[in-house]
Amino acid sequence: MSELSGLAGPRAGAQADVDYVQLLTPEGVRVENDAYEFTGDDEQIAGFYRDMVLTRRFDTEATALQRQGELGLWASCLGQEAAQIGSGRALGPQDQVFPSYREHGVARCLDVDPVEVLGLFRGVDQGGWDVVGSRLNLYTVVIGAQTLHATGYAMGLERDGLVGTGDPDRDAAVVAYLGDGATSQGDVSEAFVFSASYNAPVVFFCQNNQWAISEPIERQSKIPLFKRSSGFGIPGIRVDGNDVLATYAVTTKALEQARSGNGPSFIEAYTYRMGAHTTSDDPTKYRLADEVEHWRLRDPIARVKVYLARGGGVPQSFFDDVDAEADDLAADIRKRCLDLPDPSLVDAFDQVYAEQTPYLVEQQAAYAAYLDSFEADGPESGDGAR
Amino acid sequence: MTTLTIAKALNAGLRRALEADPKVVLAGEDIGKLGGVFRVTEGLQKDFGEARVIDSPLAESGIVGTAVGMALRGYRPVCEMQFDGFTMPAFDQIVNQVAKFHFRSGGRINIPMVIRIPYGGGIGAVEHHSESPEAYFCHTAGLKVVAVSNADDAYWMIQQAVASADPVIFFEPKRRYHERGEVDVAGDPQPLHSAKIIREGSDVTLLAYGPMVKVCLDAANAAEDEGRRLEVIDLRTLSPLDMAAITRSAEKTGRVVVVHEAAGNLGLGAEIAARITEKCFYSLEAPVLRVTGFDLPYPASRLEDEYLPDLDRVLDAVDRSLAY
């Protein structure tokens, strides 16, 4: 193992003193693992690199948009790109995803338009993408609630006969994304109970980014998180969350198990939230710069670049092209974000129920009439101006 | 016509729903082999299998949360909360998730789910088994809320709730589960979200739902002996309210008394009184009065007969209304 491969850092302790699956060291060196193997080629790794750079560029642009007042809030995924791209690219064409609210890299893997992700944070909608077509459920802000939805969806897949048939074009599974803080929520324990009891095809992918706003992982758990699930009868494993090859390999295997009817599993992707919890947060109040520096040396993108350039013989022009693509992406996102139309409160009355109620129709009409009364009396009113 | 208890009528309605749509699934604690603690689901697991009549782990948030996921997968889950008080562990999933999914998705996703809640007091139960939590759910946009009072409605309304594209909180009057009534299984049911005049009158309108409908009917019978003709309306739908039916009656009698077991403060009666005042102000001969549970936590069972609205308290309110 390399000097940077271990987990020991400023907060080394029971949480960090555990082996994990790693296939690419922070120095960009491929390493073997007895149980997991990355079987793809360098072209696929270059694809991961591109995904991660574009995800980071999107994230950086979103943070800038928030700072400029164009988003109400932004939840950055800076530092978690390998966890999200590795797991997201492991998804099969029938698999379904239930995200938390920071899975911008996963959204990319499911071809969700980043501007549709921004809509929620700009406040023009509460989740504007096509949930059914994209297979990415709405972002879920109530911590851990989505793990139950994922479990129920997986129970539905099982009832639909889409688990364990052996047909790769048919079998499906679900990934529930959650964070370290979420593991303290009752809903997550209930999701473990239900998924274990019904053998539901769900993979719980926990990005342990060490911090739940200001609460460190030590406040959530006395034991390494991946051990939490075993008490529920669900196998757990820790993977280097900053290693895209390892997160891909581990998630691929977990999904295969779920699809083939071998039930749920829990993956702890050990990573780090390099930025603030959200743009409203100030992490300098509760964590040390040393710790951030420790993790900066384990950057998920840098190690892949080193590997590709040194080991894979990928030319500099590839990296230049990706950077140029990233800048184009950022410019496009910015433009289209600013062009997002403002929603209409009058229209919102139509979206509460599938079968509209007389009461809301009445309230909607009264409000529309109230708005009209201003327009009629306003200075631009034709009659008054004449 | 056939005569059934409310519990049996619900059972028959659920059976029809399960037969009519293979996507209908039932989930809850003890609903399978045992048939539910009130036997509402008796025999259904035997006939429809464990995949469709699901004995759940003992976790209400889990029951509702997984039902959300099943609904997203195209199923129509019918969840049973074993008792009213045990609905609260699922409150987050109901209010934050079930109610809001359609709205959050810009109207693109439906959550066609029913949450059945045996509710109300009068069975001598220990604490948390006699609550009337309907106002919480009526207050929440995105939910629809109904309450049944008789076997015929139980049979039909549960089927209509299952068929609804929106989530429906379905209140069942647990103290009346074993009361019998005529069920017209070949009949043509009235729409789910509509009230029903169950006794015509001209002097005072009594508005009630669930277990209080019978109390109001008894009160109307007693009042007739004194020459007072009370109109009794079974609201049936609590959200949305059938304001057309309510205002028609209020305009006819000019006097309205709302009766419910739930505490008065910010209860259904408060909303109904406000809306009647807004719509029928010049027709009213008296303020809208309320007969409700007191603003206490539900008391120990030896006190519940005193706590719950009864015939005498309803007639007392009628007297007060007529005194204006």
Q: Architecture of the largest domain in chain B in CATH? A: 3-Layer(aba) Sandwich
Topology pattern of chain A, helix = H, strand = E: HHEHHHHEHEEEHEHEHHHHHH
Structural class of chain A: alpha/beta
Poorly predicted segments of chain B: none
Radius of gyration of chain A: 23 Å
Which sheet architecture does the biggest sheet of chain B show?
Answer: 7 strands, mixed
Provide the structure class of chain B: alpha/beta
Number of strands of chain B: 14
Alpha plus pi helix count of chain A: 15
Strand order of the largest sheet of chain B: 3-2-4-5-7-6-12
Morphology call of chain B = globular
Count of discrete structural domains of chain A: 2
Q: What would you say the CATH architecture of the largest domain in chain A is?
A: 3-Layer(aba) Sandwich
Taking pLDDT < 50 over at least 5 consecutive residues as the criterion, the unreliable ranges of chain A are none
Description:
The complex is a heterodimer of chains A (386) and B (324). Chain A has 386 residues and is α/β, with parallel strands linked by helices. Chain A has two domains: 42-338, 3-Layer(aba) Sandwich (Rossmann fold); 345-385. Chain A is built from 15 helices and seven strands. Chain A has helices at residues 42-67, 81-89, 104-109, 114-122, 131-134, 145-159, 186-197, 217-220, 244-259, 289-296, 300-311, 316-338, 345-348, 358-377, 382-385; strands spanning 96-98, 174-179, 202-208, 211-212, 215-216, 236-240, 265-270. In chain A, the strands form two sheets. Chain A has a five-stranded parallel β-sheet with strand order 1-2-3-7-6, with helices on both faces. A two-stranded antiparallel sheet of chain A has the order 4-5. The N and C termini of chain A lie far apart (84 Å). The model of chain A has no long low-confidence stretch (mean pLDDT 94). Chain B is an alpha/beta fold. Chain B has a seven-stranded mixed β-sheet with strand order 3-2-4-5-7-6-12, sandwiched between helices. In chain B, helix 3 runs parallel beside helix 4 (91-98), helix 8 crosses helix 12 and helix 9 (243-253) packs across helix 10 (268-280). The termini of chain B are far apart. Classes of the chains: A alpha/beta (386), B alpha/beta (324). Chains A and B meet through helix 6, helix 7 and helix 14 of A and helix 3, helix 4 and helix 5 of B.
